[in-house]
Structure prediction request, 96 residues.
Amino acid sequence: MATQQTSSSKAAPTKIVTTNTGRILRVNADEIAGASPVKAPAPAVVHASDPARRADVLFRVRRDEGHELSPWWMIGAFVVTSGLVILLLSGVPGIA
Prediction:
């Protein structure tokens, strides 16, 4: 955990604390002195055989067998996006 000390002439001295997850917290120095250590909750049980259930995966969806997304949707999306970019860039003046 990285910390940095800040103070102002009118405000009470504060401490900026960066947590392991990247959150930046501003805490009074008085609160730090009186705080007791907090136990972290136990991590959820994650099955190693199922990558869709990992804790760090947010938008992965488990689909039933036979209901997976067809690769042709991705190919079609690429073709449509490429065509749209070419169409829009064709209207830009000054290109040979």
About this structure: The helical segments are 29-34, 71-90.
